[in-house]
Amino acid sequence: MENITNYQIVSVLLSGPYNKTFDYLVEKTKQAKVGQIVIVPFGKQELLGLIFERSKNKIKKEKLKKIKSIVNLPLISKPFLDFTEFFASWNCAYKGNVLKLMVSPFDKKSIQNLDYKNYKPIDEEKANVKGNFKKLNFYQKNASKKILNGFNKNSNCFLLDGVAGSGKTETYFEGVNHCLKNNKQVLILLPEIGLTSDWEERFKKTFGFKPLVWHSGITKSKKKKIWLSSLYNKKLVLVGARSALFLPFNNLGLIVVDEEHDLSFKQEEGIRYHARDMAIYLASKINIPIILSSATPSVETIFNVKLKKFSSLYLPSRATGSDLPEIQIIDMKENPTSSGNWLSDVMLKELLTRYKNNEQSLIFLNRRGYSPLTLCKNCGHRVQCNNCNSWLVEHKKEKIYLCHYCGYKKNVTGDCEGCNEAQLVSCGPGVEKIIEELSNCFPNAVIENFSSDTINKLDHFTESLKKIKSGKVDFIVGTQIIAKGYDIPNLNFVGIVDGDIGTYGGDLRSSEKCFQLLTQVSGRAGRHLKKKRGLVYLQTYNPESLVLKTIKEMNKDKFYEEELNFRKQASMPPFSRLISLIISSKYEKTLNEFSYNLFECAPKYKDVDILGPAPAPLNFVRGRYRNRFLVRSNKKIYLQNIVRDWISSIKIPRSIRLSIDVDPYNFM
Q1: pLDDT tier at 124 (50, 70, 90 boundaries)?
Q2: What angle in degrees, to the nearest 10, is found between the helix axes of 556-569 and 546-553?
Q3: N or C: which end of the chain has fewer CB within 10 A?
Q4: 568 CB contacts (<8 Å, ≥6 apart)?
């Protein structure tokens, strides 16, 4: 009989929907350590797991199963174990699901076969810094000096706040260079895949090699190699989307969150989390600097600067020496468009001037497709999605109506489904309609549609951007995707079709989103002009809007002051905590019954408000009815524990899905 005293007990976190650890036996001679990846028996299956801690339970060894195998890999570091625990706690997620994100390129079988002896480094031989740096101006030098000083201190969070084109990237490259010289790893988070190719080229010109790139478009085999590199290579630079945060870095020296304000850093499906906030925590656990870079920082980040939790580094001028663009507000009540058109005469006149001068122009409208609404003049019927209570968007080029929430589509027909009359009309503009209008006015012009409908693959995206930068495009018609940090040398005029698109509605963050988006897109104009300024025309029916006025005046401080005052009076973040509960079911009656029962057992705490249940603004999506609760408390209360206890007090039927969104950004 085997001597049980030759075994020790370890607690293993399993990959999957598990929040507690499970105890297993492992031979003492194997010297199992916390942070080792293991394969363990669980019921009738075998699962991938991680030795999370030494067992604290007083349980008889005879009752425990043995670990099947220890994967021959270096340990996952202690800060990343702490990060897993914090991430799960803060975002009300299972710890095992966080582990699943961390080992996402592998399954049980593929990770079992890994062996560090057979490991071949990726791109390590290229990581020799050439030092081909651009000359920094006074403000950049001052900011980079403070960043470099941050490496000598513990856990510094910097806001690199600079106007569009101020050279924020070149400034934080100084910190990247410092890490490479000291054989450290660097993680740079970008909000979207499309930004990586442009950023890669800038990086290569500076350092002489390409960084590792991580995003959803990378093949699984490449992801495995990059994952191993983050675990083995002491020196590397990795740029990626928000999921890069879960790579098992072993020697991280710096984190950069570029375009930190961008909503793409907020994960809205599966485990909901904000990559920027989680990156800040991770940097604090490792005691390394983190740089948040933006021309339009989030309100939360500005608030933390005011509280002196973050250090502010300000770049007030463009690195090229050009002035910021002039912004003119076009009052559409005084400058109405001709019938069926959406570009005012004053806008068209300026576009003609730029076209004759061989200058590029950007026409911005944050609506995809041809028209957001199609209705019948005869009976009033609206073309609507079968799976959502949203209108279908007409995409004229593909001759389809498309739902931008669930992907449902159907062919465009001339007859109304309500009355069978051929009385359907397109209402409101999308980018395709603007392109049609421009084509009529400028029949020989080269026009590029720069939206996610046309730029849906990375190769296509890169080619389109190259075409624009080389000056082969006269007019760029784009959605929010064009506002994300691109430097287009010959672009000197920006026309914003609908400046009112984000200034109304019940969204807590609507003013902030509108300010950020329109300021960012305005910043594309005239970045390389020397003797004159770029120009921005902003069409609006509400010229007195405070948001639009602060954009015109380029008065960021005034906007943030007003927005923070509003948030404070309304007891909204960053002056309070918010957690949203989104409950859905295929059956409306079942949903409402469960929502009522959940409300009945809601906790009653001082300084905790539970608002709801109420139908979500978009209350039928992908064939499911949706209700929402909004839970609010003061900043001193750890609201997650209250919400977790509340939800655990009620049995959730299998027909109900309940999602927890901590610090919600989307209120639809």
Answers
A1: very low
A2: 150
A3: N
A4: 575
d(CA 226, CA 210): 13
Return the closest-CA partner of residue 515 out of 543, 479, 554, 457.
554
| Residue 267 burial (C-beta neighbours within 10 Å; 0-12, 13-18, 19+) | middle
Instruction: Report the C-alpha gap between 581 and 603 in whole angstroms.
Output: 14
DSSP 66: B
pLDDT tens digit string along 634-667? Answer: 999 999 999 999 999 999 999 999 999 999 988 8
Q: Which residues of 125-142 are buried (b: 16+ CB within 10 A; e: fewer)?
A: eebebeeeeeebbebbee
Is residue 602 within 8 A of residue 646, CB to CB? The reply is: yes
- pLDDT higher than 90, residue 454: no
Do residues 64 and 25 make contact, with C-beta atoms less than 8 angstroms apart? Answer: yes
Q: How far apart are CA 302 and CA 163, in angstroms?
A: 15
Instruction: Decide if pLDDT at 126 tops 80.
Output: no
Q: What does the block give as tokens for 361? A: 């122009």
* Angle of the 510-522 helix axis to the 556-569 helix axis, nearest 10: 170
User: ∠ CA(347), CA(349), CA(350), 5° rounding?
Assistant: 65
Instruction: Kindly compute the dihedral angle of the four CA atoms of residues 452, 457, 463, 468, in this order, to the nearest 10 degrees.
Output: 10
Strands (E), 458-569: 475-478, 491-496, 535-540
pTM: 0.93
Burial profile 573-597: b = 16 or more Cβ within 10 angstroms, e = fewer = bbebbbbbbbbbbeeeeebbebbee
Cα separation, 371 vs 433, in Å, equals 7
CA atoms within 13 A on the CB side of 444: 4
158 forms beta bridges with: 291, 311
Q: Return the half-sphere exposure (C-beta side, CA atoms, 13 A cut-off) of residue 562.
A: 14
Rounded Cα distance, 514 and 550, in Å:
11
Q: Mean per-residue pLDDT for 154-172?
A: 91
Distance of CA 337 to the CA centre of its chain: 36
Write phi, then psi, for 26 (nearest 5 degrees). Answer: -145, 140
Q: Which residue has 């927890």 as its token pair?
A: 660
Separation between Cα atoms, residue 412 and residue 624, nearest integer Å: 25
